[in-house]
Specification:
The protein has 206 residues and is mainly alpha-helical. Helices cover 73% and strands 0% of the residues. It folds into 2 domains: 50 residues, Orthogonal Bundle (Arc Repressor Mutant, subunit A); 132 residues, Orthogonal Bundle (Tetracycline Repressor, domain 2), CATH 1.10.357.10. Helix 1 crosses helix 2. It is elongated and about 60 Å long. Pfam families: TetR_C_24 (PF17932), TetR_N (PF00440). GO terms for molecular function: DNA-binding transcription factor activity; transcription cis-regulatory region binding. This is TetR family transcriptional regulator. Keywords: DNA-binding.
Length: 206
């Protein structure tokens, strides 16, 4: 008879896998993808290296799990920031979404650099592409609503949103890789995003 895990056993295994993912996130935030090893994650999680391998086949599977957890959290934050609301213009929504996306990245530059640009395995790079697409989706509705209401000039919302995410990620690569906290990055990015979407007279604050 095949062994079936009880709910209690499955819950314990899920909790263990979750703690390993969080430990991997800590290592990535400190050492990047190049500095992550199964042994380093095991030490951070306070478990044996073999325990890490029982839950994840290797570094690629583990980092992919980290990507999925982090991206889900970050996408939700950006989506909430750019959500429609009474009196919120397209400019308000895009500004809040860009500030949230870039601001959160700059607060954890090492991990954000891993998510955006650090050389990684092919499988992890595929997860990165899904990550960019998910973020683009957070801008689509704001742009579409702006076009429909006449606040933005006619354009394809999905194309504009995808281009916006790509441009913002490219701009952030330098500050993230060098772990710089430039005060001008956020306002310049917001101004660029608004100009790219066709908002007139969009300039960074003095």
């Amino acid at each position: 008879m095949a062994y079936r895990r009880t709910p209690a056993v499955q819950a314990r295994l899920d909790a263990q896998a979750g703690s390993i993912v969080r430990a991997a996130m800590t290592v990535l935030s400190r050492d990047g993808f190049a500095g992550l090893s199964m042994a380093a994650v095991a030490a951070e999680a306070g478990v044996a290296t073999g325990t890490v391998y029982k839950n994840f086949s290797g570094k690629t599977e583990l980092v992919t799990a980290v990507f999925r957890e982090v991206v889900t959290r970050e996408v939700e934050a950006v989506r909430d920031a750019g959500a429609a609301g009474e009196g919120r213009t397209a400019r308000d929504r895009v500004t809040a979404a860009v500030e949230t996306f870039a601001g959160r990245a700059l607060k954890n530059p090492k991990l954000a650099y891993v998510l955006l640009a650090e050389p990684v395995d092919t499988a992890v790079d595929a997860e990165r592409l899904r990550f960019r697409r998910a973020f683009a989706e957070t801008y689509v509705n704001a742009v579409a609503d702006g076009v429909a209401s006449g606040q933005l000039p006619p354009q394809d919302p999905r194309t504009s949103a995808t281009a916006l995410v790509g441009a913002i990620g490219e701009v952030l690569v330098g500050p993230l890789s060098e772990q710089l906290q430039s005060e001008s990055v956020l306002p310049e990015l917001v101004a660029f995003a608004l100009r790219a979407l066709g908002v007139p007279h969009a300039l960074p604050p003095e």
